[in-house]
Design goal:
By secondary structure, this protein is α/β, with parallel strands linked by helices. 43% of the residues lie in helices and 23% in strands.
Length: 306
């Protein structure tokens, strides 16, 4: 009898604990959060899945409904919408609800009704340059060709970041691919062994012919080339930074929480800080870089020498 009463007491305690947990859980009084993403082919679809997983893992305190943009049916009601990519931003803005976006660049935010806050999937100046100083600390100058409208703010931030660490940025503007080719010829002619070379994409100033020219001269002059495109690491660049997709989801969760608590201004936009690093060990060896355990710990994708 006493044993039965003890078990019943334990069950009662468990029920009470469960009720308290449910009342305290964010989902008990959750906002309805709708996440929209485009339907694309693999491997790009995996990117969106990983962002969603990162967002869900950080539990922003919302009841999350994930919806692909497949063109079918009405969107479910929501208190706020997370939009991944330009197409999703347009669909989210049409709901009239607060929109939180992750997009490639600022142009993708030029939609009426967007956005309460946004995360750009383009690395910040720090994210681009910090690995350079870690892998190649003797660098004293970085060369870059850029488009003012697309890259101007990033380049000015990079110049300040490097100056604070005793380095210089030689930045040459260009308006089109022909101008970029001329600017790169000028920059590479003046390049010295130990310079860094920053390849900025997405601005219409790079094609593969120009990339191969830069990489050929960089190998000959022992220049450290870096970008945001891991494919260029396979072609001989020293390293590339690229989005940590789960980290992107986690940062979106933090942005949602900060906005809800009133800690973010309306229209807040920030660059990508959570990145992964691809590294070409053959190029590193050519530049005289020895990978210590600490440096290896920075690398997420290592291309070993042949």
């Amino acid at each position: 009898m006493a044993h039965r009463r003890f078990r019943e007491g334990c069950r009662a305690c468990h029920r009470a604990w469960l009720l308290c947990w449910l009342l305290a859980s964010p989902l008990a009084a959750a906002e309805r959060l709708l996440l929209l993403y485009p339907v694309v082919r693999e491997p790009y679809q995996t990117v969106y899945r990983e962002i969603v997983a990162g967002l869900a893992a950080h539990d922003p305190g919302s009841a999350l409904v994930v919806r692909p943009l497949d063109g079918g049916g009405e969107l479910p009601p929501a208190d706020a919408v997370v939009a991944l990519g330009r197409r999703a931003v347009a669909a989210a803005a049409a709901t009239g609800r607060p929109v939180f976006a992750a997009v490639a660049n600022r142009r993708d935010l030029a939609v009426p009704g967007c956005c309460r806050a946004a995360l750009l999937l383009r690395p910040s100046a720090r994210a681009y340059l910090e690995p350079l100083l870690a892998f190649f600390p003797r660098v004293s100058r970085v060369l870059v060709v850029y488009a003012e409208g697309e890259d101007g703010e990033l380049v000015r931030t990079a110049e300040q970041w490097l100056a604070a660490r005793g380095r210089r940025l030689l930045a040459l503007p260009a308006a089109d691919l022909e101008g970029a080719a001329q600017a790169w010829r000028t920059a590479l002619a003046a390049a010295r062994p130990g310079d860094g070379v920053w390849l900025l994409a997405g601005n219409g100033l790079l094609d593969m012919t120009l990339v191969d020219l830069v990489l050929d001269v960089a190998w000959e002059k022992r220049l450290a080339v870096f970008s945001a495109n891991p494919a260029l690491v396979r072609r001989g660049a020293l390293y590339a930074v690229y989005p940590d997709n789960r980290g992107v989801g986690g940062r979106l969760a933090e942005i949602l929480a900060a906005a809800e608590e009133g800690r973010l201004p309306e229209g807040h936009v920030e660059p990508l800080e959570r990145v992964q690093v691809a590294y070409n060990e053959r190029t590193g060896n050519h530049l005289g870089i020895g990978l210590t355990p600490a440096l290896r710990a920075r690398i997420d994708l290592l291309l070993a020498p042949f």
